[in-house]
Amino acid sequence: MNEVIIASLPSPDVSQIRLGPLTIHFYALCILTGIIVCLLLTSRRWKSWGFNPDNVWDIAMWAIPFGIVGARMYHVLITDPTTYFGEGANPLDTFKIWEGGIGIMGAISVGALGAYLACRKYGVSFARFADAVAPGILIAQGIGRWGNWFNQELFGKPTSLPWGLEIDPNGYTFPDQYEPGTLFHPTFLYESIWNIVGALGIMWLAYKLCWKLGQTFWAYVAYYSFGRLMIEIFLRIDASQELFGLRIHVLTSGVLLLLGVIGFIIAGQRGRHRADSDALTSDRAATGSVSAR
To answer: What is the tens place of the pLDDT at every residue in 154-206?
Structure first.
């Protein structure tokens, strides 16, 4: 007996529009919107800290291209290598990024390398810039996830919840093992909400608790990785490379979560040590001044 569907979340009928010879993919628009929001927020935060907001745009000119390359490399080498290097595959398809296939973890890690090189070039503290940009990156990821909605991809297990996601049964992403009309967990929506709420929470906590240099960035790494880990373990059903019997994204998320927690603790300890050293130096200077009198 089939379940009665009371409500559901529809998927868009189109994922792109054509303007003459130009094809505009909504997935790309979501990513572009996320990048713009990230840069605007980071620029505002950077300026409020007393720094030149032009630094943000200068660094972005390095970080974004590096991030695009990293995102593609992660997809090709980690997520789906058989498509590009398996039997009958054409390795040159690696460069066809317009056909889809990017990985956010590669975008962040290699993009961070580009940001680091730019910070060195422009004489900017990389740790401080990482703290400034981290919430914006999380919001950008939340916005970018809506691209999965337009593409009807990367959804979760079947569900009867009223926000179950409709997927076109004739589309290439619909799993063969399920009947037409099956609803799926909208993991794009879960992750989008998780990311945006997390960005706001991290900014609030960093302000209220006076987090030390680097802690905002490492909090972002840990927070995002935990949410991604939960989705990968309990909800995602799309095909994925495995290692030690686990989805590769489970392993990378777990490693990043551990790295984020350790980084947050170390950054806090270093910050307190610097504060203690500065206080001791001030006390000595004050004592010296009194003695000189």
So the answer is: 999 999 999 999 999 999 999 999 999 999 999 999 999 999 999 999 999 99
Q: Which residue has the tokens 């979501």?
A: 30
Enter the pTM of the model.
Answer: 0.91
Angle subtended at Cα 103 by Cα 56 and Cα 92, rounded to the nearest 5 degrees: 110
Please say whether the beta carbons of 70 and 111 come within 8 A.
yes
Helix ranges, the chain (H): 26-48, 54-74, 81-85, 104-122, 126-144, 146-151, 187-208, 215-234, 248-292
User: Collapsing DSSP states into helix, strand and coil, what is residue 165?
Assistant: strand
235 in Cβ contact with 187 (< 8 Å): yes
Instruction: Indicate the SS3 state at residue 246.
Output: strand
Length of the chain: 293
Residue whose entry in the numeric block shows the structure tokens 């909605």: 149
Nearest CA to 147 among 32, 230, 22? 32
Q: How far apart (Å, rounded) are the C-alpha atoms in residues 286 and 280?
A: 10
Strand partners, 246: 243
101: helix, coil or strand?
A: coil
Q: Measured between alpha carbons, how far is 263 from 211 in angstroms, rounded to an integer? A: 13
